[in-house]
Design goal:
two-stranded antiparallel ribbon; 12 helices; globular; alpha/beta
Length: 378
């Protein structure tokens, strides 16, 4: 199967890998990439926000044979809280969290002492954060070849929020020469991390506007047939919370996953309408319209088909609302392994092979924990 899967997916169009933001939860994305890599599937385009932008840059900024090595090196460097590991490690998670807040995460971020002197201390727009990300800057420069990103055959897009206008901005290697600033901007989550200035504008983490950057694929011009693997770290499905502790956890899941559902619902409707317009325009009889008017009409339609596989990361045992700063060796390992096994299961089931309505320009497949879910019609 592995030998034929790549050609099968390529026959459906460009292969796109989309990563959400989610801090330590991003280890799940590494497992997803590892499974694709082992099946011989390398993306043509990788898109990310926040930790997703970091993982995406490590993939696009290295040759295929070194990508897993560099991803493993990064996640090994940001491991934290090993002293709190053990059979009852989950009971010590508050201490691990407090350690990260007080001391930072090695190779990622370090406390900014002036910020802890008071919230009104004038730090300056490019230093107004509780932590410095200079360690992350050095890590990325060591593990990522930004020249390869610009000259390589893999497209990279990262999302960031313009501080002045509040608009989502996508920095794309096909349009802009990307460097470490763009990756840092995509992960500059306030008030922890300071904004990053690029070409005179300040940018924050794209996740505060849209944490699932799959819209970059839908709005691309010209549209192309695509096979999109969108990795969701924050689960849109969840049980009713029964305590304040559970409320805090569920609130984060909803906050960082809800826009994705709205985007996908809208895009399914739009792509269906485009296919309808295309079909109707072909029924216009000769002479009923001028060639110019008919060409304008047909421009609103298209025949492209996009398959989107949403990989929904399930909640692991003992997770709570601090899961996104759980950089413990055990947490990273469990999420990495989960992402790998779930993706292998999904690839073996190959949901894109199921028949679909010819009018559907957007075919959605959802997988939770590797199991394919039923998706209601658009």
């Amino acid at each position: 199967m592995k030998s034929t899967l790549k050609s099968e997916l390529k026959s459906l169009g460009q292969i796109v890998l989309v990563f959400q933001g989610g801090g330590a939860l991003g280890a799940y994305q590494v497992g997803v990439y590892q499974a694709l890599h082992e099946f011989g599937v390398e993306p043509d385009w990788v898109i990310g926000t926040s930790i997703g932008a970091i993982n995406a840059a490590l993939i696009a900024g290295n040759p295929a044979e070194q990508r897993l090595e560099k991803l493993s090196e990064f996640w090994g460097r940001v491991e934290h809280g090993k002293i709190f590991e053990g059979p009852l490690g989950h009971l010590l998670s508050p201490m691990r969290t407090m350690s990260a807040i007080m001391n930072g995460i090695p190779s990622f971020f370090a406390p900014n002492p002036l910020a802890f002197m008071g919230q009104k201390v004038p730090l300056g727009p490019e230093a107004a954060g509780y932590y410095s990300v200079d360690p992350l800057r050095r890590t990325l420069m060591e593990l990522t070849d930004f020249g390869r990103i610009q000259q390589g055959d893999m497209r990279l897009t990262v999302g960031a929020a313009n501080v002045r206008t509040s608009e989502m901005v996508y920095f794309d290697s096909q349009q802009t020469e990307l460097d470490v600033r763009h990756i840092l901007a995509s992960g500059a989550l306030p008030p922890a991390f300071p904004a990053v200035r690029i070409d005179g504008e300040l940018y924050w983490d794209g996740g505060i506007v849209s944490n699932t950057p799959v819209e970059a694929v839908f709005d691309d011009s010209p549209r192309q047939n695509s096979m999109v693997f969108a990795v969701h770290l924050w689960n849109p499905h969840g049980a009713e919370p029964k305590s304040i502790w559970e409320v805090a956890n569920r609130q984060k899941d909803i906050q960082y996953s809800s826009r994705a559902h709205a985007h996908i619902k809208r895009q399914r409707q739009l792509h269906r309408l485009r296919h309808v317009v295309q079909q109707l325009s072909m029924l216009v009889p000769d002479g009923a319209s001028t060639p110019e008017n008919l060409a304008n009409l047909r421009s609103y339609g298209c025949e492209t088909k996009i398959h989107v596989v949403r990989l929904l990361a399930p909640q692991l045992d003992h997770e709570d609302h601090t899961k996104d700063i759980d950089f413990s060796p055990r947490g990273i390992r469990e999420r990495w392994e989960a992402g790998y096994s779930h993706t292998v299961q999904m690839l073996e089931q190959a949901p894109w092979r199921a028949p679909s309505d010819p009018l559907e320009g957007f075919v959605l497949h959802e997988a939770l924990g590797g199991q394919i879910l039923d998706v209601p019609a658009a």
